[in-house]
Write a structure and sequence with these properties.
11% of the residues lie in helices and 40% in strands. It has 229 residues and is mainly beta. It folds into two domains: 103 residues, no CATH class; 96 residues, no CATH class.
Amino acid sequence: MSTDQKDIKPPCFIEIFSINDFARFVCALERIPLPVLKFKVNGEFILATQTDSFQNTPILYFVKTKEEGNFIMYKQKNGKETVEMSNSTKDRMGIYAPIISLKKIPRIFEDGYKSKDIKLPKYLLMMTEDLSNLCKLALYKVLYDETPLPLFFLTNNGVPLLGTFTRMDDADDTSIFFYTNLKKKPEHCFIKYSSSNPEKTDFTDNTEGHGYLYSKIIRLGEKHTLVEI
């Protein structure tokens, strides 16, 4: 083993508010749906996916579940979402994220899930001027055929906010949480943005309109462990 190999730390588990939010996270607007791990901790089955790591700490977003299935099926049409646990991919209109059921997980996964006392570093924070500037950051790479960044909804001392995680340089390990405060909790699952008319940035449940770029909103169960505002 290389002496300069970095030690992997116990994962940081971030709970997502609902199965619909989780399905939207792993399926909606993705070029390829994200693979999902299913395993049991503390007598509970959870679905989890890793999208990032921060200073050698894997970041796993998860939701608790009692349902069975080989796939999460997600479908969005005319502003209505359908989410199902499925054993097959028969519905051609659906987007399917594969569920990989695990019989055994590393001890550090259990440590990360169970522990509330692990001291973790925090993301750097940058507050954008308004919602359209946050969308500009989350969506500009769509113009170059990349996947839009998800926008996470959470509250800070009762103040609702949306934010996203990114690096200014892909080679840089310094991750930043860009966010903006909201006047109220969003009632829709997506946000639409037009680079030609940024003032028309708005919330929506329908991603089929022309002339807009779309990003998904993911509600978190609690505060993000690595975000301290």
